[in-house]
Design goal:
Elements lengths: L3 H11 L12 H4 L7 H7 L2 H13 L5 H17 L4 E6 L7 E6 L1 E3 L5 E3 L3 H5 E2 L11 H4 L4 E5 L6 E5 L2 E12 L8 H19 L9 E15 H5 L2 H6 L16 H4 L4 H16 L4 E6 L5 E6 L2 E2 H21 L2 E4 L13 E9 L12 H20 L1 H7 L21 E2 L2 H13 L8 H4 L4 H4 L1 H5 L10 E3 L4 E3 L8 H28 L4 H16 L11 H10 L7 H4 L6 H9 L5 H54 L8 H32 L4 H30 L10 H6 L2
Parallel strand pairs: 1-8, 15-16
Antiparallel strand pairs: 1-2, 3-4, 5-6, 6-8, 7-8, 9-11, 9-12, 9-13, 9-14, 10-11, 14-17, 16-17
Helix pairs in contact: 4-5, 8-20, 12-13, 14-20, 14-21, 20-21, 25-26, 25-27, 26-27
The structure holds adenosine-5'-diphosphate and magnesium ion (MG).
């Protein structure tokens, strides 16, 4: 029988390129057509309902039950006008993906009459079966039920995939006793905390600022590969990454993919999913090839963080579904292939005021520059003080393959600011005395407004190896995993900035109370923050060994694995931070810690299982089959009287194959034993650490080494798993 691998390759060569997608016209004609925007609401709601919705979108005000009935009626009318039959509460459980439970508008009245109905209660609150979502023990301890509650700050939308259309209501997910069970609720709380703290600090510079919101522009990296090839790789199907596979003769060294045009078949897929995204109001702007073969990137125009997070999740979902339509697969895992670049998700982050100012954009006057410097230096200080919390926020089994491998930001959190701002900070350090003296008036005359705008012109001053880089008017958190929900990283970032800004305000106010001039007090606290956090600044090559050593000397943490990185979530420092900023209480933090550890364990466990399975059922049988062929050959040669030198090469290959086979068999059995020991462990943290140090580290690379050697030795026609050159270069 033909192997799946060859069938896949065959089907591929007979498939037509880029079929199936007719490009539509202008984007503006469809943009947001599946979103219940305020403009749409105006047309479908009564004045009273519209006003209420508007107020709760803008200020988070609770919606009254009676008004909710009016809103839900208008919503149903709009949805039905677009052919929608079902609705769902859409939420972001801690599994990392999104969840939905569909109900139809259809119901039967007590007298038996069938009707379509959608009342306010169904809009505001639902009770999904929470028992199948991770809760880290919260529900066991408190109450078995959880519910989803409408979050009016995110727009309601229609998911239109295939033939069905569903009205999706963005919600938060909480336990019956009020603990949050999702990524969204803490994010919203962190945004509120940041808003309050930043508005207070803004009042030094501009009393008109009444709201500060964080902004996020994500850049999503992903691979696109053929569906049939993926289906013949059980590891890709089960784990999203290849656990084996020898590097192809040609990898990414020529970098020809980066500059090349997008392959036709992928291009059709891209235009198709972009179309879906535009209808949902996702402002996609950029699409291009990435460095690795078959790797691509999508990025929208930045938006308010909570909306941007929703849009990223929706986009990931759409990519996955639309790719299937094109008989392709979008691989969003952080490291689908060894030896070539993995996927990241840069989170471009800044803060903006309701007066239209980007707080991380250098200003043109001394006053606006002092405001910029304040937020800029507070961000650096926050990252320094809480780098462990940022590190924990991006920790996952998948991301462990990137952080620390020499292609992505290292596990050491450092900040890159570029040469101009380095000089500016150095100037402040030198010219602003540590103590107040007669020079103080002079410091206000620092020519910051002259030197900073140059930075805007110098876009070449980029450092691609830094996990947290200032890029002109925003920070780019580059260490976020491609498969992650950005909300986790954004919640951590917002919270540590809020905390730092609060401290800053207190310290400046204390100096002002002592009679210092406001600007001078600000300058002095800024100087203090520069001095106390400068260790986190690093301009060099983050991938280098020297940096690992240098960082150690500076005392910067370098936690390479997820189970240990997660410890930072449950320290007294973390509990105080998240509790005082009203983002997560200690029960919620402990639950999250537990859930992330469990996720890690499961991921590594599944990978270990699939490795064992593939070895026994795919790799070893192929190797033995080929070995037997060689043995037959040697026997035959002997029989006809060929001298030993005549079959020495064959014999050598037979021996090599034997060696790899026995190594693989031995390691697989030992790995299974190690897993059994881990599985018997009760404490989740101990178990996660053991899965890392007793299962993953001693066996994964070792087994892979021998399998990949066999891939080169064994007859190509006997090899069952599609090879890297096929997955990455055929389409
Ligand atoms: P790159 O060179 O890294 O691709 P771009 O200038 O194209 O950088 O921007 C990348 C992302 O940063 C885009 O999503 C863009 O919208 C976003 N971005 C730009 N300004 C801001 C901002 N003030 N806040 C958040 N994101 C921003
Ligand atoms: Mg970028």
């Amino acid at each position: 029988m033909e192997s799946l691998r060859f069938k896949a390759i065959n089907d591929l060569t007979t498939s037509t390129n880029g079929q199936g997608f007719e490009g539509a016209g202008r984007i503006t004609a469809i943009f947001g057509e599946n979103v219940f925007t305020l403009k749409t609401a105006r047309a479908f709601l009564s004045d009273e309902a519209y006003k209420s919705l508007n107020a709760s979108v803008k200020s988070g005000k609770k919606i009254d039950r009676t008004v909710a009935n009016q809103i839900s009626a208008g919503l149903r009318q709009w949805a039905e006008s677009k052919g929608v039959t079902h609705f769902t509460h859409w939420f972001q459980p801690l599994t990392g993906t999104t969840a939905e439970k569909h109900d139809s508008f259809f119901t039967i009245k007590s007298d038996g009459t069938p009707i379509e109905q959608f009342d306010g209660d169904a809009l505001i609150q639902q009770e999904p079966d929470a028992s199948s979502f991770p809760s880290g023990g919260i529900r066991a301890t408190f109450e078995a039920r959880g519910y989803t509650a409408w979050d009016p700050s995110s727009p309601i939308f229609i998911m239109d995939i295939g033939t069905g259309k569903t009205l999706c209501i963005p919600t938060i997910f909480v336990s019956y006793t009020g603990e949050t069970l999702d990524y969204k609720a803490p994010l919203l709380k962190s945004l509120e905390g940041l808003n309050k703290a930043a508005v207070e600090v803004c009042s030094y510079f501009d009393k008109n600022v009444t709201k500060v919101y964080a902004t996020l522009g994500w850049e999503q990296e992903y691979f696109v590969v053929d569906e049939a090839l993926v289906n013949s790789r059980p590891d890709l199907v089960m784990t999203g990454r290849t656990v084996f596979g020898h590097a192809p003769a040609k990898g990414q060294q020529l970098e020809d993919h980066y500059f090349g045009s997008i392959p036709e078949r992928v291009y059709a897929f891209m235009r198709d999913y972009e179309q879906e995204a535009y209808k949902l109001g996702i402002p996609l702007r950029t699409r291009h090839n990435e460095v690795a073969p078959s790797q691509f990137e999508a990025a929208p125009i930045f938006e308010e963080v909570s909306v941007a997070v929703d849009h990223n999740l929706l986009c990931m979902d759409i990519m996955d579904r639309v790719a299937r339509r094109h008989k392709l697969r979008a691989l969003l895992h952080e490291k689908p292939f060894a030896g070539i670049n993995g996927n990241g998700k840069h989170n471009n982050w800044s803060m903006a005021t309701d007066t239209g100012v980007n707080l991380l954009a250098p200003g043109k006057t001394p006053k606006t520059n002092l405001m910029f410097l304040t937020f800029f230096v507070n961000t650096i200080k926050a990252v320094y003080d809480y780098s462990d919390i940022l590190r924990a926020s991006i920790a996952s089994a998948g991301n462990d393959h990137r952080l620390g491998a020499n292609e992505a930001p290292p596990a050491i959190i450092s900040v890159f600011i570029g040469q101009y701002l380095t000089k500016v900070l150095e100037d402040i350090k030198q010219r602003v005395g540590a103590k107040f003296d007669e020079q103080d008036e002079a410091i206000l005359k620092l020519d910051l407004h002259r030197s900073i705008p140059e930075l805007m012109l110098d876009n070449t001053d980029r450092n691609r190896t830094s996990p947290f880089a200032f890029t002109g008017n925003k920070f780019e958190f580059r260490a976020v995993g491609s498969a992650a929900n950005c909300a986790n990283a954004m919640t951590a970032l917002n919270t540590i900035i809020a905390e730092t800004l609060k401290k800053f305000k207190k310290e400046v106010d204390a100096l002002v109370d002592k009679g210092e001039k406001k600007e001078i007090a600000i300058m002095h606290v800024i100087r203090e923050y520069i001095v106390s956090s400068e260790k986190v600044l690093f301009e060099g090559d983050g991938y280098s060994d020297e940096w690992q050593k240098e960082a150690e000397k500076r005392g910067l943490p370098n936690v390479k694995t997820t189970p240990l990185a997660l410890d930072a979530l449950v320290t007294d420092k973390a509990k105080k931070l998240f509790e005082e900023n009203n983002v997560l209480n200690h029960v919620e933090l402990e639950a999250r810690h537990e859930i992330e550890l469990e996720k890690y364990i499961k991921k590594v466990q599944i990978e270990a299982r699939i490795m064992g399975e593939l070895c026994t059922s795919h790799i070893l049988p192929s190797a033995v089959k080929y070995q037997n062929k060689l043995i037959e050959n040697i026997k035959g040669l002997k029989e006809i009287g060929v001298k030993e030198s005549g079959y020495a090469s064959q014999k050598k290959i037979v021996e090599k194959i034997s060696e790899h086979i026995s190594q693989i068999s031995e390691m697989v059995s030992k790995m299974i034993e190690a897993r059994k020991i881990c599985n018997a462990m009760d404490d989740t943290r101990t178990k996660a650490i053991a899965y890392c140090s007793q299962v993953k580290e001693p066996f994964f690379d070792g087994i892979r080494y021998h399998v990949d050697k066999l891939e080169l030795l064994v007859d190509d026609s006997e090899w069952l798993l599609p090879k890297y050159r096929e997955i990455l270069f055929l389409r």
